[in-house]
């Protein structure tokens, strides 16, 4: 019989968080030199500051990469380029790349450069965002609607829909760093599977938006240190409370034998993200938590 403190051959799993991939897609069009409320810095400078804080705060919990757009080549409308590939603990390289990119880095050619759709389209099939072992997402930061001249072959909403429809789905989060562009960004967010765009018009609101998005994408999936002989003998407990958390795809947990991972959902996931739960026991072979 399994009782607390008893010997029933139970084994406790060690958990390793499966960290998601997030590609930051940052607008570098000339309008990013515009003024920002409550700041003596321009939009580009404030955006760089907010990204620096984001990648510092979530450096261990998210694998970041960086795209800037457009590529500022040809007659405008070029897709952006990956300037920092996705990697673990990537806050430093992203900060280093942005450090010396002043106003001279902005595309102020006079050509249409807000190539949002072309840039998102270029990420369809991108290997860095086609990792089957983890969640994959795009975080778009722009200060305006995409240029009409850049929509001959696609647009932001259509490209976001393509990203989301892939076999390995990529969600698109959209942040408008200016007033009056939520309509088009709402279409991108809806098509990209995240539904609601974020509006920011000063440093504080931009930081809050990025923090909220990062909090939403932080993983509630964990890899187990050994493969259970029988998944039906997995039991999960928060704070040693009995009965444990239900095997439930809505507000409990599920096990994926293909990746040997356990994922938490709904209220269970939110409890982990909020810090309301700090002691998680995943036990094989015994329906009570293991003491200690």
From TrEMBL:
Signal peptide span: none
Coiled coil regions in record: none
A Pfam family it matches: VWA
Domain VWFA: 21-213
InterPro entries in the record: VWF_A, vWFA_dom_sf
Name listed for the protein in its UniProt record: VWA domain-containing protein
